[in-house]
Amino acid sequence: MEAAMGEALRCGETEAQIAAARAIGSLNTMQKKRLAENGSITPLIMMLHAQHYDAIEASLFALLNLAFGSERNKLLIAESGAIPALLKIIKWRNESLMELSLAALLILSSCSRNKLEIASSGAIQLLVELLDSLSQNVDSNQAKFDVVSTLHNLSTSPQIIPLIVACGGAVVLIRLVYESEKSSDLVEKAMALLESLVSSSQLALNQVGERDGAIEMVVETVEEGTAACREHAAGVLLAICKSCRETYRGLILREGAMPGLLQLSIDGTWLARKKAKALLLLLREDDDNGSLSSSSSSRGKHSKNAVLKKVMRQIDRAGGTSLQMVEEMIAKLRT
C-alpha cells in the first residue's frame, strides 16, 4: 500500500499526489517508517511550494502524520527542507494553513537535532512578531499556544535563549500574559518560557523587572494561575528578586505578593513551595537591631514583619503549617 503511495507522490499528477498525501494518515507506524525511508518526504516538501491550496494542506497533514512519534522522521523532514517552506506559509497568514504550519514547526522543534537549524532559519524573529500580532486576538489561542510551545522547545538549547530575548520574546510574553486568562494553558506555557528566559538572561530579567505592570502581572499569576503556572510565576519573581534584592524587594511587596506566596508555600507543587519559601525569605525585612519607630506606620510595618517571621518559622518546621493558620496570617497581612 505504501509503495503505491510513494510512487504517486514521486511521479503522479497533482491530484494523485494530493490523494496519496491524504491517505498517509491511514497508515500504521511501520508503514509510515517505510514510506519515509523510501524517499516520499521530498515530494511532500515540494508540494508545500505549489500554488495549490489542497496540495499544501494535504502535504502539511501528511508531514504531521509522519513526524508524530518519530524522531527519525522529524529529522528527515527538517533535512529535506521543510523549515523554510513552513516559514513561508506562516508569512502568508492564511489562517488554516498557518495553524497547520505552526503545528508542524512545533513537532519539528521537539527534536533536539532540529533546534539550531530552526533558530538559524529566521524562525524566532518571525514567531515573536507573530505572537505579538496575535496577542489581542481571542480567536487564535491555538496558534498562540503553538508559537509559545515552539519557542519553549527551542529555549531548552541555552545558546538559543539570547536570540529569543534579542527578538523581544520576554516583552511580548509579558503582553500576552497581561491580555490572557491567568488560569489558561496558554499562560502556563508562556510563564514557563518566561521563567526560562529570566533565569538565563540578564537582559530578559531587566526587561521584566523594569517594565511597567510586569511585576504586578506576575504576582496576579501566582494567585490565579494553574498549579504549574503559579510555580513558574514564583520562579520569575524569585529570579528578579535574587538579581537585585535592594531594587526589587520593595516593588514586589508593593504589588501584594505576600498572600499568594504564603498560600503557594502550603498548597503548591513541591518545587513551587520551595521557590515560594526562598522568595519569602528574600522579601522578609532584615532585623533592625531592635530600633523601633514610634510612628503608627512603622508599628504596622513591624507588626506585619512579625507575622511573616512567625509564618516562616512554622513553614520551617517538619510537616509545615496548617492551611487554616496560613489563611489567618494572610488575613493579617492584607489589613
UniProtKB/TrEMBL annotation:
ARM repeat residues: 39-81, 81-123, 122-169, 168-202
Keyword field: Repeat, Ubl conjugation pathway
InterPro entries named in the record: ARM-like, ARM-type_fold, ARM_PUB, Armadillo
Tree of life domain: Eukaryota
Keyword Repeat: yes
Statement: the UniProt record of this protein carries the keyword Repeat: yes
Domain U-box: 123-286
Protein name stated in the entry: U-box domain-containing protein 3-like
Source organism per UniProt: Salvia divinorum
Lineage of source species: Eukaryota, Viridiplantae, Streptophyta, Embryophyta, Tracheophyta
